């Protein structure tokens, strides 16, 4: 009876331990080998300006989360400033806002964040935005082309590109080629001349996509490179498809050679705005780091992952971890000694004496 109970308890503990082990490895993605590392990027944005002795209000867009980029840690340095963050409902941009009643002289505001590459297989979390129109092919758009030369030029471009495309992504790619062709299309010159303010190619591309009833947005961001100071801001257009927001010039080779894009903000607004200061400028720096895979697994995980971490040896102080790393070898040593005595037939000084000698 006691033998059966011992075998039952041993079997239950064995199955339970194997289940926890597989759950940590497969679901929580804990590493099997020590000292396995993965790359992350540390981002720093430094806003410098000269205060004029007036109330200061400063706004800076913050990096955005996406399906393949995650921000795991953020901190802000702003001595003596009031500070808060908020998210714009329409654009989804994240904004940091600083304020101070009175400041004079050179002022510095810092943002720091840790970025890592997330799972690209996750489905899109953002819903497709609703466009108001008028759209190409509708009666309202046809009436608009009678009096508006811009609408007439847009209609001609849409007709040409539509025949050479199969879906939203290919339509946007063909449209981008029209904007990049040499010599420039005369219809594009009409759009630029008739516009009340200077427009760039990204704005024209987004406008034409809107008339074609294709959701689009102008994005701004940086490249995640090895180590670089004063990283330049890049702008591109994204369209909403089956996989969520996709860059029009989505080139895998470009991502490999120039680094992955970090989305920062969308729209025509500048990266920062300072009221009550002059000579404002912002500098963005990027530094590549190698983090432990265990650390990255905890970043990726939810409360369950953190719970497993809190009940593990890694949550203890370092001196206690060193003690436990030795004590946890005793069951393994007992298993080896028992196997050598009972199966192989090697004579030993009991079961635990060889283990204690080895630990000592």
Helix count, per DSSP? 12
Low-confidence stretches: none
**Alpha-carbon distance between the termini?**
38 Å
Q: How many β-strand runs?
A: 13
Q: Please identify the structural class as seen in this structure.
A: alpha+beta
**What do the pLDDT scores average to?**
79
Largest β sheet strand count, sense and barrel closure: 5 strands, antiparallel
Please provide the ordered H/E string of secondary-structure elements: HEEEEEEHHHHHEEEEHEEEHHHHH
Give the percentage of residues in beta strands.
25-35%
Taking Cα atoms only, what radius of gyration do you get, to the nearest Å?
A: 30 Å
What does the overall shape look like? elongated
In spatial order, strands of the major sheet run 3-6-1-13-8
Classify the helix fraction into a percent range: 25-40%
* Quaternary status: single chain
Task: Provide keyphrases for this structure.
13 strands; 30% strand; 360 residues; 12 helices; four-stranded antiparallel beta sheet; five-stranded antiparallel beta sheet
Explain the overall architecture.
The chain is of the alpha+beta class and 360 residues long. It is built from twelve helices and 13 strands. The strands form three sheets. Strands 3-6-1-13-8 form a five-stranded antiparallel sheet. Strand 4 and strand 5 (94-100) form a beta hairpin. The chain is elongated and about 100 Å long. The mean pLDDT is 79.
Set out the fold topology.
Elements: H1 2-27, E1 37-52, E2 56-62, E3 69-77, E4 82-87, E5 94-100, E6 104-117, H2 139-147, H3 149-163, H4 168-180, H5 186-194, H6 201-211, E7 216-224, E8 227-228, E9 234-241, E10 244-247, H7 252-258, E11 260-266, E12 272-275, E13 277-292, H8 293-300, H9 303-310, H10 318-327, H11 329-344, H12 353-359
Antiparallel strand pairs: 1-6, 1-13, 2-5, 2-12, 3-6, 4-5, 7-9, 7-11, 8-13, 9-10
Helix pairs in contact: 2-3, 3-4, 3-5, 11-12
């Amino acid at each position: 009876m006691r033998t059966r109970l011992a075998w039952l308890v041993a079997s239950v503990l064995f199955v339970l331990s194997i289940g926890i082990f597989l759950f940590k490895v497969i679901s929580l993605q804990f590493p099997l080998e020590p000292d396995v590392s993965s790359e992350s990027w540390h981002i720093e944005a430094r806003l410098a300006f000269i205060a004029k002795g007036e109330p200061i209000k400063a706004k800076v867009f913050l990096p955005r989360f996406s399906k393949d980029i995650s921000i795991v840690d953020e901190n802000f340095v702003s001595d003596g400033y009031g500070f808060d963050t908020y998210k714009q409902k329409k654009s989804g941009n994240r904004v940091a806002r600083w304020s101070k009643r009175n400041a004079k002289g050179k002022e510095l505001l810092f943002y720091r964040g840790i970025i890592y590459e997330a799972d690209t297989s996750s489905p899109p979390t953002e819903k497709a935005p609703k466009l108001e129109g008028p759209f190409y092919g509708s009666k309202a758009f046809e009436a608009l082309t009678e009096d508006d030369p811009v609408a007439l030029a847009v209609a001609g471009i849409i007709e040409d590109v539509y025949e050479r495309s199969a879906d939203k992504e290919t339509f946007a790619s063909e449209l981008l080629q029209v904007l990049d062709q040499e010599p420039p299309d005369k219809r594009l010159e009409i759009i630029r001349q008739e516009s009340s303010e200077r427009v760039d190619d990204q704005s024209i591309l987004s406008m034409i996509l809107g008339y074609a009833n294709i959701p689009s947005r102008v994005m701004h961001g940086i490249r995640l490179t090895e180590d670089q100071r004063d990283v330049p801001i890049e702008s591109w257009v994204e369209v909403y498809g089956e996989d969520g927001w996709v860059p029009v010039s989505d080139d895998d080779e470009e991502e490999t050679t120039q680094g992955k894009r970090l989305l920062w903000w969308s729209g025509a607004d500048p990266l920062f705005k300072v009221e009550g200061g002059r000579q404002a400028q912002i500098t963005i720096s990027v530094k590549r780091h190698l983090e432990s895979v265990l650390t990255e697994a905890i970043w990726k995980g939810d409360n369950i992952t953190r719970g497993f971490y809190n009940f593990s040896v890694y949550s203890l102080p370092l001196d206690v971890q060193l003690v436990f790393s030795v004590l946890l070898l005793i069951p393994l040593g007992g298993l080896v000694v028992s196997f050598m005595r009972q199966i192989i037939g090697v004579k030993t000084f009991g079961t635990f004496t060889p283990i204690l000698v080895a630990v000592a």
